[in-house]
Write a structure and sequence with these properties.
This protein is α+β, with helices and mostly antiparallel strands and 428 residues long. The protein is built from 15 helices and twelve strands. It binds 5-S-methyl-5-thio-alpha-D-ribofuranose and magnesium ion (MG).
Amino acid sequence: MTQGQGDYRILQEAALRDYLAGLPDLKAILGGEPASWAITEVGDGNLNLVFIVKGARGGIAVKQALPYVRLVGESWPLPLSRAHYEYLALSRQAQLAPGLVPALLHHNETLALTVMELLEPHIIMRKGLVAGAQYPRFVDDITTFMARTLFFTSDLALTAADKKEGIAAFAGNHALCKITEDLIFTDPYRIAEQNRWTAPYLDGLAAALRDDMELHVAISRLKLKFMASPEALLHGDLHTGSIMVTDSQTRVIDPEFAFYGPMGFDVGAVLANLLMAYFASAGHERSPGERRAFEGWVLDTVDKVWNGFARKFLDLWRAEAAGDAYPVSLFAGEKGAARLEAERQAYMRRLFADTVGFAAAKTIRRIFGLAHNIDFELIEDPRKRAISEARAVRLARAMMMETGSFPAIADVTIAARKLRDWQPELSN
Ligand code: SR1
Ligand code: MG
């Protein structure tokens, strides 16, 4: 890591070229003369600048945090320190889940700038899902990523002292947590200037969300869990826009929302985004039933992601528990082993219930809050889009309010399948 000299400044193409030219390792990766490097800004996320730089020999990806939310503009300032937390999280994830995050090549704290390997020909998974692509490596890779990063940063694997050091290292990332607390757990359920939805079709549904006190209790309980349960180091924004894929590789990117929180928030993010891809699919078909095979794969993937994650997490707990939680001395002998195993199963049931609730929250925010996703947004016909969204919301509402009726992941996928052709009542 390089400590930057001087003040932060936004690096546009010319300044970035000069900056990179001064870094021999990166110069060597790129090859050729700096003047010949092709630099393109490709950031399509909500927060940062992202440049792809290509030279005669190779390429790199450069990410620079802006001092404000890119999606909204300078009126919404945001600390540059998020680049530090992202770098810290990526470094930790690289140790815990090698090969599943991009290689880090350079970091400058003052410039809030990180250089990573260029992932090519990887694409953002969400874009692939909109096109109806299936990814055979995804389940194994994402379940390994989640099981290892969550288990090894939890009290099941760490001493109490190390765990608390971990919490402290990320505690300063509270501005990013606040975005989540507002945009996911609060704004969709009240009048908020930046909310939007597919109007007028979903006007009634939006009003119902604002009026439903039981739903407000359910989302507030999830919010409290998010704020007050530092179980493990989370990626913090693990949607399909934070995952890059090819047929044979998966890379998790963009952990700038990383902090110690409830594990179900990460797992729920993955499941919610798959479920949204499933419900959006009907809106992308050009002929009826054209994408059924894709939709079947998505639901199968939902099943396998939870089951694979749970199996890998439990295997790690059985084999690698070195943490201060569940002291070995309290579970001696056959009787102790059996009781501990029953407790592990109970732990996973609780984690699954959290996952279901957070998945619901993640879905509703993408339909009524500030930041939407292209799964739905690219459905051109607003009526069709609203129908897909209303189906997703119906499932999400049930998952949040009646979490106990979804004791297993199959209950979620069966419910999703039933809603595939459900015709919602729209407001127009
Ligand atoms: C203002 S930031 C909006 C969203 O973009 C990120 O990807 C997070 O999901 C955040 O909530
Ligand atoms: Mg992001």
